[in-house]
Amino acid sequence: MVKPRLDYGDAKVSAHSARVPSGAFTQISQAQIHQIKQSFTMLDNDRDGIISRTDLQNMLTSLRQQPDPQTIDKMMTQIPGPIQFPVYLTAMSSILSRFSSKEDLVNAFSAFDNDDNGQADAQELREALIENGVSATAIDACFKPYLKFSLGKVTLLYKDLVEGIIV
Prior knowledge:
The protein is mainly alpha-helical. The protein has helices at about 30-45, 55-60, 70-75, 85-95, 100-110, 120-130, 135-145, 160-165, and strands at about 5-10, 10-15, 120, 145-150, 155. It has two domains: about 5-95, Orthogonal Bundle (Recoverin, domain 1), CATH 1.10.238.10; about 100-165, Recoverin, domain 1, CATH 1.10.238. Helix 1 (about 30-45) crosses helix 4 (about 85-95), helix 5 (about 100-110) runs antiparallel to helix 8 and helix 6 packs antiparallel against helix 7 (about 135-145). The protein is elongated, with a radius of gyration of 20 Å. Mean pLDDT is about 80; it is low at about 1-20.
């Protein structure tokens, strides 16, 4: 029997060797797989096909962070090593597959859209999110690019927000 192969850009991965938990690959789009490949390439600073402690340290330093060795150790143990692309893809697919689809997010936001025009009352939505444990700082940072100010009312262009966060 021939083992099927999955195409992830430049990487070819045997379906049996990838060990995908609960169909995570089938729940993300080809565009997301492409983005995961790009992020792996960016993280693999020395281009040896493995994300190492040094690669991770370099990436965090480029983001102006100064993690201590214990933080790097903790991060490296989150994915069983060595962290080659198939392992990274499996881990990231598992994480991404837990997120809601565009349609689910738009439907959730539409509950705050009284005029059915793709705009939700930003203050009402913000209060509901805060009541459910989301920090005001996180909400404000996420909403800021998608706010519309008109006649003293602030609305969230939620369809644009969803398009901006989900590929």
